[in-house]
Amino acid sequence: MRCRISAMTSLKVVFSKIGVVAIQVCLLAPCETLDKVMCTLKARIGPMFRIMSPDEFQTNPWKNGGGITREVARHPVGEDWQWRISIAEVGTDGPFSLFPGMTRILTVIDGAGIDLLAVDGLLEARLHRPVHFSGDQDVNAKLVSGPVHDLNLIYDATAVEAAVNVILGPATVNCEAGTAGFLCLSGAVTVSGDGLPVGAFALGTGADIALEADATGILITLRDRA
């Protein structure tokens, strides 16, 4: 995640023997990015991850009014976001909302799957198999066998590099570069030693995610394009 400080402005991090005391804003030139500061903070205070339970997700109606999505996170906050992570329940066949200029990665996390019908062909979204498609496309969803839940990443590919991978335990994933999100689907998972309950989502940077042999989860990685 790269946040650029305005010209003639920089940050000064003040440490003591027990860690960070203060972050001072100073008038300096030239302008700098927060990357070096964030790396320094990570080295001194460790990983910066937030664990969210499902009741913290924000419930919103679909843009087309056809259903409900539970938003996990977006960046930046507001309407002009570059990426958004959400979980949706699809209970009936019907059209997907359009997100012009965006790329979508959809992963079925519960249920048999969905067939996504578009002008340029058919995408078969099946359990734990991420599929990519353009937010500019008119897509109609047809359920394979009953309702499904799916994890959605929608992002601006001109500004962000993104990937979605299903992780099966036993495994350990190091999340040093960029921003990472992890949804625990089953089994025992820890984020830098803290337990991640089934259905909870961890978001941040700098953590080690450990899955026991019985665990499954979905890892989302996001990195700003240079």
TrEMBL record:
<dbReference type="InterPro" id="IPR014710">
    <property type="entry name" value="RmlC-like_jellyroll"/>
</dbReference>
<protein>
    <submittedName>
        <fullName>HutD family protein</fullName>
    </submittedName>
</protein>
<dbReference type="Pfam" id="PF05962">
    <property type="entry name" value="HutD"/>
</dbReference>
<dbReference type="InterPro" id="IPR011051">
    <property type="entry name" value="RmlC_Cupin_sf"/>
</dbReference>
<dbReference type="InterPro" id="IPR010282">
    <property type="entry name" value="Uncharacterised_HutD/Ves"/>
</dbReference>
